[in-house]
Design a protein that fits this description.
It is a single chain. The protein has strands at residues 2-4, 8-13, 18-24, 30-31, 38-45, 58-64, 67-75, 79-87, 94-102, 111-117, 140-145, 148-151, 159-163, 165-171, 176-179, 187-192, 198-202. By secondary structure, it is mostly beta strands. The strands form four sheets. The chain has a five-stranded antiparallel β-sheet with strand order 5-10-17-16-13, with no helix packed on it. Strands 1-2-3-4 form a four-stranded antiparallel β-sheet, with no helix packed on it. A hairpin with a 4-residue loop joins β2 (8-13) and β3. It is globular.
Length: 206
């Protein structure tokens, strides 16, 4: 499925409900999604239920209040999981909603986790004039906590932090992709990766 506005073009796959391209039209058609990235994926930690897996049973694309809405739904034996993207044609900010409906008799519990994983191509040696080129434009994790942005340039270190995490994402030399939860709950952010830098942000458990 593809959503296109004057600002961007976003293609989404039903395999995991993630973006395969996120192109910024007014910035030299820059694609924020590399070939092997897994952006805006989600998972459940410490879940007491099983669900249908990465491929949803039901996918729809519609319009709501002038915005494009793409919905992915997984229907499992114990729960129905719905992931919804809402795209504003006049903004680079996209909303994402995640809901879980109990299909069984026992209460459900889990900790949802959002993740953005990139893929950094290995460095290659250049020719005679390669010394004229600047450093590679690689993505690195960062997050905002306690009125301070924490940048994690040492990407091979697998680390985490708990507390008031207001947003978390990946940044390059010119661009930033970030998850910004609506609430100010205590949460956990984890990051790391050398060839595949990633950031995982835990949401409010249920």
């Amino acid at each position: 499925m593809t959503v296109e506005t004057d600002l961007y073009r976003v293609s989404l796959t039903n395999h995991g409900g993630v973006a395969t391209e996120w192109i910024l039209k007014k910035f030299n058609a820059t694609n924020l999604v590399s070939d092997e990235a897994r952006p805006a994926q989600f998972s459940f930690m410490d879940a007491n239920f099983s669900w249908a897996g990465p491929t949803p049973y039901h996918t729809t694309q519609s319009r709501r209040d002038g915005k494009e809405v793409v919905t992915f739904q997984w229907i499992g034996p114990e729960a129905t999981v719905t992931k919804e993207f809402i795209f504003n044609p006049d903004s680079y900010v996209a909303e994402m909603n995640l809901s879980v409906v109990n299909r069984g008799r026992q209460p459900l519990s889990a900790s949802p986790v959002l993740g953005w994983e990139d893929f950094s191509k290995p460095k290659t040696t250049g020719g005679f004039f390669s010394f004229l080129k600047g450093p590679p434009d690689l993505w690195y994790p960062l997050y905002f906590s306690e009125a301070k942005v924490e940048r994690k340039h040492k990407r091979d270190a697998e680390e985490s932090q708990e507390g008031k995490i207001y947003w978390a994402g990946l940044a390059s030399r010119y661009f930033l992709t970030a998850f910004v939860p609506r609430d100010g709950e205590d949460r956990k952010v984890a990051w790391g990766g050398a060839e595949r830098p990633y950031v995982h942000l835990s949401l409010k458990p249920f």
